[in-house]
Amino acid sequence: MTDSIDKPQDLPAELPDVTATTPLSKTVQDETAAGAELELEIDDAKLATTKPQESAPETESDIELVGQADIELMDELIEELDTEADEVDKADQARIKVEVNEALNKQMIQMETAIDGQHIESDPGSVFGHIDTEDVILPSEIFLLPVKERPFFPGQQLPVLLNKQNWNETFEAIRSGKCRYIGLVYVDREENEKATPEDFSHMGTLVKIHEPKVKEDYIQLIAEGIQRFQIVNWVNESAPYRAQVDYPQDIQTGSDIEFKAYGLAIMNAFKELLPLNPLYSEELKYFLNRYSASEPSQLADFAAGLTSAENSKLQDLLETLDLTERMEKVLALFKQEIEITKIQFGIRERVEESISEHQREFFLRQQLHEIQEELGMVKDDQSLDTDRFLERMKTLTLSPEAQKKADEELNKLKMLDSQAPEYNVARNWLDWLTQLPWGKYSTDKLDLKRAKKVLDKGHDGLEDVKDRILEFLAVGALKGEVSGSIICLVGPPGVGKTSIGRSIAESLGRKFYRFSVGGMRDEAEIKGHRRTYIGAMPGKFMQALKDCDTANPVIMLDEIDKIGASYHGDPASALLEVLDPEQNHDFMDHFMDVRFDMSKTLFVCTANTLDSIPGPLLDRMEVIRLSGYITEEKIKIAKHHLWPTLLKDTGLTREQVQITPGAIRQVIEGYARESGVRNLKKQLSKLVRKLAVKFVTTELKSTRIHVNELEEMLGQPHFAPEKINQQIGTITGLAWTSMGGVTLTIEASRVHTLNRGFKLSGQLGEVMQESAGIAYSFISSNLDKYKADPEFFDKAYVHLHVPDGSTPKDGPSAGVTMATSLLSLARNESIKNPLAMTGELSLTGLVLPVGGIKEKVIAAKRVGIKELILPEDNRKDYQEIPDYIKEGMLVNFAKHFDDVARLTFNIRSKSVALKTHLAHKESEVSKKALINTQP
User: What burial letters (b/e) apply to 761-780, b meaning 16+ CB within 10 Å?
Assistant: First the structure.
């Protein structure tokens, strides 16, 4: 708790009247002898019979001056005073103001009519009227109490609370010495009981003690300010503080006319302040009744006590002895106080006006509402809701089932109380029902030329995909509508699946709605919640129809291959009812509980792979594969789409920034070799950002990006040019992944010849391990057929490895490649020409078909391999590949591994290993014959 000073009106009502004081013409010794009425000895019996006081606030303060700034410490007293003030009617307040104004006017008339140079006599009862006389004897040595809240001024009369624990010793010393006077000195320190002489202000106020009372935790007394003093010498520098003081006289450098002018200015300021804050009325009345307004010292001290100025400024006023200077400072502070009070008064008035205006408007609206209800001019909320739903239903073509249920819910809505829970359930259901597009269909734009322009505008390459979409639209044009189809776009990330779906909607002129089902595990996301649940709402498809406001939008289900299942249900199974054209003409959402025709909706799904899509769901889809882009396609996409868009987003123009075709090709081959173009966009965006910094920080006007600048801007290339490994036992295969086609190098090596064995490495899946075992068994059993050493694997420990061991690999398409690698090892011969191959191998040597032919061809072309071996059954898949991809490629088709062996090795001639084996055999036979012929 801090020391504090409150306004005089904050004093408790039960405090005794101490305004009547003994004239200072008496000596302190006389007052001590004749002061029986102010006896400081505490009579316990008398205290027991005294009216109990309110308990002191539980604080940590040492000294509390309950006065102007003590709002927190005297909360209980202030609340009582506020309660009493609320009970005073306006007539009493007006009477107080009139009395104060009359007193002010009287004082001001008296000052204005005085003769120049004549001093107006003070009130005979005022102690200040005689304080400057020579017969006053004030104590030269007094006890000091440090106060930390604000300085105490002469003329103030305030209650003081002392922390008994800290100041009991000082109080006992004051009481034992029967001192009537003590000094209050301002200190700028929180722990004032630990104050040192350096912390004390140079000047303080001598106060007279009245009504001392000792409580359980605190000591209470009333202090009456008497006279300024200044500390001359310290007698005791720690509690109880004691010092020798003297009493400086006021310096009157100005004339009586000047004092009168300052007095009139301060009195006028009083009159200006009084209407702004009625709380000053009682204080001003108390001052005018006790003192004369012509006494400049008392007038200045009183005015200073009313202000809420900073402590440093108040202490400066207390230490100012020149009356002219003091009144000038007080007048400046008082004017500032008036400005602050005016602002507070204005704020209070605006708040009260706002509250009054709101109350007035509220009552008027209530009266208007009652009048309108009496006249039947307004309806209640239930009627408004019912009318709104009926108005919506007029524009809809509801099914008989929906119409029947809507009528039932409307009747229920009329009967229920608006506060009942069932009311909100029915209202929410009707709100959804009337916002669904019952019978609303957009007109399809089946112009194939326009559709081709839209597709070409948004996409470079993907000619087969765009042709497939045009075929789909052509069928719709013949029928007159595109209805109930499910297109599934399958391809690696970044090839434009989502943008193609958006282009389909644009070419048809339909609304487009997209949401992702990746990671969805709750069936309610598809078919909605039951209405009985709290927070129930329809599924995603009903929300899509509501947002599109048509019953035939294009709805895209992104990442359908990543849909999940949990104890909440199987969303993939729930999709069957939505996507199946045989069922979705009467799709029923759990929340709506009425059948809605979704057969005209076009569904477009996207996936990276088909393996994780449930069979029954995949069976209902028309799959369109997006295989990825070759380098030439990526260059076109970068030129026509990515680069212009990035420049526009950055605020640059083509005139400012240009990039050479060679630089684009190097970015693709060295930094973004993936099937899609998402990473290509990131790398180009990095280039643009680097250039943006140069444009901002330098005076660069235009630039052109060349190949030799890429390493400085993008760092070292992520991909090095691939070299075809044509060592013995090393063959390049082709594989398909969800990221597109890739090349796969397979290596075989003989570790030692101590024993027979076969080892696999490269994080291979179960199917791929089986393919390796089949290849090993087939080659081991057919070494004679393929002109290799027939005993090669009898004593050889062979290790087969697929590099990039950190990447999981699985699938049967590497069977032919593994077999060729083992045959190369057994023949001790590498393939002559760089080629790649793919195909599943059976135990009898048949080459079986595999998937992802287009992706694999693109992968081979990307690394510069132009000769391929594919299964014969995949010939039709290869023929469907666009000609610009097949250009420059030499593809061989194999039915049996014999075809593969013939294409990779010259099987008609013996291998090096076989020749070595035969020579070794002939040598052994010769040795045996020689031994047998010897005697």
Answer: ebebeebbeebbbbbbebbb
Burial of 459 (0-12, 13-18, 19+ CB in 10 A): buried
Q: Round the average pLDDT of the chain to a whole number and report it.
A: 77
Joined tokens for residue 922: 């002939």
309: buried, middle or exposed (CB in 10 Å: 19+, 13-18, 0-12)? buried
Q: β-strands 218-236, 203-214: how paired?
A: antiparallel
HSE-CB at 403 with a 13 A cutoff on CA atoms is 10
Tens digits of per-residue pLDDT, 585-612? 888 888 888 989 888 888 889 988 888 8
Q: Are 590 and 527 in contact (CB under 8 A)?
A: yes
572, 574, 578, 584: CA torsion to nearest 10: 140
DSSP 420-451: SHHHHHHHHHHHHHTTS-TT--PPP---HHHH
Q: What are phi and psi of 697, to 5 degrees?
A: -90, -20
Beta strands in 431-543 (DSSP E): 486-490, 512-516
Mean pLDDT of the region 212-239: 86
SS3 467: helix
DSSP secondary structure code for residue 27 in this structure = -
Residue 616 has pLDDT above 90, yes or no: no
Token reading at 341: 């009070």
Residues in the chain: 935
- Give the gyration radius of the chain's Cα atoms: 51
Taking the model in full, what pTM does it have? 0.54
Q: Which two tokens stand for residue 888?
A: 């420059």
Rounded Cα–Cα distance for residues 6 and 403 (Å): 75
- Rounded Cα distance, 244 and 863, in Å: 104
| C-alpha separations of 63 from 149, 223, 231, 678, 762 in Å | 9, 12, 20, 75, 84
Burial 151-176 (b: 16+ CB within 10 A, else e): bbbbbbbbbbbbbeebbbebbebbbe
Token reading at 930: 């020689």
Q: Are 740 and 712 in contact (CB under 8 A)?
A: no
What are the tokens at 102? 């009359």
Cα separations in angstroms, 36 against 32, 171, 208? 8, 19, 15
- Measured distance CA(175)–CA(604) in Å, rounded: 98
Collect all residues with Cβ–Cβ distance below 8 Å to 903 and sequence separation of at least 6: 835, 869, 892, 894
Q: How many CB atoms lie within 10 A of CB 593?
A: 15
Q: How open is the CA angle 696-700-703, to the nearest 5 degrees?
A: 115
Q: State the catalytic residues.
A: 813, 856
